[in-house]
Amino acid sequence: MMDFIIDFLLVLLYTLKDVLPIIVLIIFFQMVVLKQPIPHLKKVIVGWFYVVFGLAFFLIGLEKALFPVGKIMATQLSDPAFIGNLENGEANWWSYYWIYIFAALIGFATTIAEPSLIAVALKAGEVSAGTINQLGFRITVALGVAFALALGTFRIITGTPLFIYIMAGYLIVIIQTIFAPRKLIALAYDSGGVTTSTVTVPLVAALGLGLSSAVPGRNPAVDGFGLIAFASLFPIITVLGYAQFMELKIRLLKIKTSKNAI
C-alpha cells in the first residue's frame, strides 16, 4: 500500500508539473491580455483540482492495470504452447489467429467506449439534424479500428514493413476522398483522430509491445509501434466507404422511384 501511495504521489507531482504551464497560460491571457477577472473562480479552482487528480489516477491506472493486461494477453496468446501448429520450432502466421481475433475485438470494444468518439458522434448528430446516426457512426468507426488492429498484429507477426500498409491505406483514402460526399469528408478525417485517445491508446500500445516481445525474431523498438497509426487510418476508410455506400443507395432508390412513377 505504501508503495502505491509513493508511486501515486510521484505521478501526481509530474502531472501537476505538466498541467501548470496550461493553467499559467490561461490565467495570463485572462488577466493580462483580456484584462478580465476569471468568472466563477471557485468552480474553476475545483475543476483544476479534479483535472490534476483525475489525470494522476488515470496515469497510475495505465501503469498498474491497462499496460500489464495488454502485455500479458499478447504474451499468452502468442505462447507456442497455446497456438501449436509448430513447424521447425516456429509457428506460421496463421497459427496466431487468436491474436487477430483478440486485437479486432479489443479495438472494437475500446473504440465504442472512447469518450472523444462519443463527443464527435453527438455533435455530428446535432449539426446534421439527425441525418447522421450516432450509434451507426460509432459502429462504423469501431469496425475500422477492429480491422486495423487485426491487420496491424498481422504486420507485427509477419514482420512486413509498416510503410507499405500506411501508403496503401492513404492511397485508398485519397481515391475515396475524390468520390465521397463532400459533407462527410471532414468528419471521416476527424474520426481517425478521435479513435486514438484515452481508452484505446493504452491497450493498443501495450498489445503491440507485448506481441513484438513474444513473437520470435521481432524487436519491440522496431515492430512494437505502429498499431496506433493503423487505428488512425482505417476508420477514415470505413467512414468514407459508408458515406459512399449510403450515397449510392440513395441514388438507386431515386432511380427506382422515378421508374415506378413512369
SSE arrangement:
Blueprint: H1 2-33, H2 41-77, H3 80-83, E1 86-87, E2 90-91, H4 97-112, H5 115-127, H6 134-158, H7 162-179, H8 182-194, H9 200-214, H10 220-223, H11 227-261
Helix pairs in contact: 1-2, 2-9, 4-6, 4-9, 5-6, 5-8, 6-9, 6-11, 7-11, 8-11
Summarize the structure.
This protein has 262 residues and is mainly α. It has helices spanning 2-33, 41-77, 80-83, 97-112, 115-127, 134-158, 162-179, 182-194, 200-214, 220-223, 227-261, and strands at residues 86-87, 90-91. It starts with a helix and ends with a helix.
Largest sheet composition: 2 strands, antiparallel
The parts where pLDDT drops under 50 for at least 5 residues are: none
Beta strands, count: 2
Give the number of domains. Answer: 2
Features:
262 residues, mainly alpha, two-stranded antiparallel sheet, 11 helices, 2 strands
Description:
The protein is mainly α and 262 residues long. It has 2 domains: 1-66, no CATH class; 78-261, no CATH class. Helix content is 81%, strand content 2%. It contains 11 helices and 2 strands. It has helices at residues 2-33, 41-77, 80-83, 97-112, 115-127, 134-158, 162-179, 182-194, 200-214, 220-223, 227-261; strands at residues 86-87, 90-91. A two-stranded antiparallel ribbon has the order 1-2. Helix 4 runs antiparallel to helix 6, helix 4 packs antiparallel against helix 9 and helix 5 (115-127) crosses helix 6 (134-158). The longest helix is centred in the first third of the chain and has 37 residues, at 41-77. The chain is flat, with a radius of gyration of 23 Å. The mean pLDDT is 85.
